[in-house]
Specification:
2 helices; Cytochrome C Oxidase, Chain G; 0% strand
C-alpha cells in the first residue's frame, strides 16, 4: 500500500498541470509553452476564423442575385405522404419561397 501512495505522489508531481515558477524542472518551459499557445490562439487562430467568416460572407453575396434553377417535377422529389404538423402542412419548417419549390412548383 505504501508503494502505491509513493507512486501516486511522484506521478502527480511529475505530470502536474499547474505551472511552477520556482525554477524547478518544467516550470519555465511549461510557462513558455503556455504563452506560445496563448499567442498562437490570439494572433493566428482568431484572425483565421475572422478571415473564414469574411470569405463565407463574400461568397454568399457573390451568389445572392443568381437566378433560381428551373423547376422540374421529378416523381422521386418532394413527396408528401402526410402533412407537416405546422402551418398549412405543405411548407417545410425552414421554407424559403425564393429557392425551395413545393410539389407543384415555385410560389409566385
Amino acid at each position: 500500500m505504501a508503494s502505491w501512495t509513493k507512486f501516486a505522489r511522484s506521478f502527480s508531481r511529475k505530470y502536474s498541470v499547474a505551472p511552477k515558477f520556482d525554477g524547478s524542472h518544467g516550470g519555465a518551459e511549461q510557462f513558455d509553452a503556455q504563452l506560445l499557445w496563448k499567442r498562437l490562439s490570439y494572433f493566428v487562430g482568431f484572425p483565421a476564423i475572422g478571415l473564414a467568416m469574411v470569405n463565407c460572407y463574400l461568397s454568399h453575396q457573390a451568389h445572392h442575385d443568381d437566378e433560381r434553377p428551373e423547376f422540374v417535377a421529378y416523381e422521386h422529389l418532394r413527396i408528401r405522404t402526410k402533412k407537416y404538423p405546422w402551418g398549412d402542412g405543405n411548407h417545410s419548417l425552414f421554407h424559403n419561397s425564393k429557392m425551395n419549390p413545393l410539389p407543384e412548383g415555385y410560389e409566385e
